[in-house]
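tmp note - PHD-type domain-containing protein
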Amino acid sequence: ARAKVIISENMRVIDEAEGATAIPEDAYTASGGLPEEAILCGVCGGGEATSDDDIILCDGVCGRAYHQKCLNPPLRLEDLPPDDEGWLCPPCEAKVNCIFYLNNLMNTAMPLDTPWQNIFDFDPVDSSESEGESSRRKMR
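out:
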């Protein structure tokens, strides 16, 4: 029970992202686009981007954007993944890792957008049938 409390508390801290503000859902266009004036840093609230302090959108589920220099440590452009890969802000990266390990540990299929309050609400995935099926195939 104590471990669940500690895990829940850590997931809460990750979800709250030190108070960083998400871009409001109503700022997105019908096609899912985002007008430039709606892209504001979740930390400082500013929308001005410069060549050495661009605003980077997180490709995770948080809906946040960050100035490179508002992140701790600051994000260098050379640390961004190639265009075909998404960039995850530190809280989203931590959440992806935690949910991956929790799913493995608890044999669940918890989605990444699970709020911290619900992380222990998932039943284990019944994999006995598929495992049995694969072991039967191996025996033939």
